[in-house]
Amino acid sequence: RIRLRFFLRPVELLERGGRVAGVRFARTAPDGTGGVRDTGRYEDIEAQLVLRAVGYRGVELPGLPFDPV
Question: What does the pLDDT read at residue 53?
C-alpha cells in the first residue's frame, strides 16, 4: 500500500539502538505565492528503511505521450 502525504518536509532521521526508526517531518502549508511555510508542527513517521530520492528524469517511450519538462 502506498500513501502519498503532502506538505511534509523531512528534517531528521530518528534512530533506536543505532538503527533507523523513523523520520521527523515539519508540517508545512501553502504560503499563497506558490511556495510553502513552516507551521511549527512536526510529525514522526516510523520506518525501518529510508531511501533518498531527489528529482527524476523521464524516458520517452515510442507511441506514448511524453512531456520533457
Answer: 80
Domain annotation covers residue 32: yes
Q: Judging by beta carbons within 10 Å of its beta carbon (0-12, 13-18, 19+), is residue 15 exposed, middle or buried?
A: exposed
Q: Helices then strands (H, E): number in the chain?
A: 0, 3
Domain count for the chain:
1
Is 15 contained in some domain? yes
Pick from 55, 25, 60: nearest CA to 40? 25
pTM of the model: 0.72
Which of 20, 32, 24 has its CA nearest to residue 8? 24
Of 56, 50, 42, 52, the closest CA to residue 9 belongs to 42
Domain encompassing residue 31: 8-46
* Ranges under pLDDT 50 in the chain: none
